[in-house]
Design goal:
Structural class: alpha/beta
Distance between the termini: 48 Å
Strand order of the largest sheet: 8-9-10-7-11-12-13-14
Length: about 325
């Protein structure tokens, strides 16, 4: 094992950059040595808030530093593939926020760079780490539960180009390449390789240029099925909610929390060392670096998700 891992968070001023900083603050063998944002003022503000010594602008200013072992990329989707490749080429371990890429070609190219680099290359597929889904995964691994159907709702209210903090975005989010990626990967993780996938979408927004509503059907090699409904038009509670219907139980997963099919809460506080899925994801990243092993949610493990998304995009076009 190596000693403490020195981490840079790029996109630190955004909603998920801060979520990663919160998680890293709980990890004893991780040191955040530098944060990066799109302006010096934003970077300085985050550094002051979290007590971090160094604040810079952009990725290049991070990659040239010798006090950075690993980079967490919480940047706009369109930058993920190129920035991951650049960080790996600079000899840094990388965890990139979901999605790895917004095209299957860029995802495959990034996988090739990762394989050649010898570095840890991980994607933020947080659902693999939420205690709720870990609980279900453990029951599946033990042979006590088999998914028959996964019913998922991913709902937000985003008729303007805003982020999770309600702030204006410089880029446009996407239901398929971002939000569907969570469920496509999770379904394969819980029920086996996806062998059939279908998608339809609603009208294209005149200003944002994206579909605001989408429906996806999946089937795995085990025969399990998944129905995923996504919307940026939903008014009401937002987020992603999962109903696992199995041969021995029904579970409702709401982020880190888990309930029975009759809405009785299940205690998942002992599943892992934290109830924060993003912290657990960051712990896996740091541990994999220290132990020199492939992490859960490596690019290699999640690449099939992006191949499925690519096939769905072809259908939608």
């Amino acid at each position: 094992m190596s000693d403490r891992v020195r981490v840079a968070v790029v996109g630190a001023a955004g909603a998920f950059g801060m979520k990663h900083l919160d998680g890293l603050a709980e990890i004893d063998d991780a040191d955040v040595t530098v944060v990066s944002a799109t302006s010096q003022d934003k970077a300085d503000a985050v550094a002051a808030q979290y007590g971090i010594a160094n604040a810079v602008v952009g990725l290049d200013a991070v990659l040239e530093r010798d006090d950075v072992d690993a980079v967490i990329l919480a940047t706009p989707t369109g930058l993920h593939a190129s920035q991951t490749q650049a960080a790996l080429a600079a000899g840094k371990h990388v965890q990139v926020e979901i999605p790895l890429a917004d095209s299957v070609a860029d995802a495959e190219a990034t996988l090739a760079v990762a394989r050649a680099s010898g570095k840890i290359a991980m994607v933020g597929h947080t659902r693999r780490f939420n205690p709720s889904h870990q609980y279900v995964h453990a029951r599946i691994a033990a042979g006590d539960f088999h998914v028959q159907q996964l019913d998922v709702q991913t709902y937000f209210f985003r008729r303007t180009n805003t982020n999770a903090k309600g702030e204006a975005r410089s880029w446009t989010d996407h239901l398929l390449w971002h939000h569907a990626a969570h469920t496509v990967d999770l379904f394969a993780y819980q029920a086996g390789r996806i062998v059939q996938a279908n998608a339809i979408q609603g009208p294209i927004h005149p200003d944002l240029g994206i579909a605001m509503d989408m429906s996806i059907q999946l089937k795995s090699e085990t025969g399990a099925i998944c129905t995923l409904s996504l919307s940026f038009n939903n008014e009401g509670p937002f987020g992603t909610f999962f109903r696992y219907i199995g041969d021995t139980a029904t579970y409702l997963a709401r982020y880190d929390d888990l309930f029975t099919g009759t809405d009785e809460q299940i205690d998942v506080s002992q599943v892992a060392v934290s109830m924060n899925g993003i912290e657990l994801q960051d712990r896996e990243f740091v541990s994999a670096i220290r132990e020199g092993r492939e992490p859960n949610s490596s690019i290699q493990q999640v690449i099939d998700c992006y191949r499925v998304l690519g096939a769905l995009e072809e259908q939608l076009q």
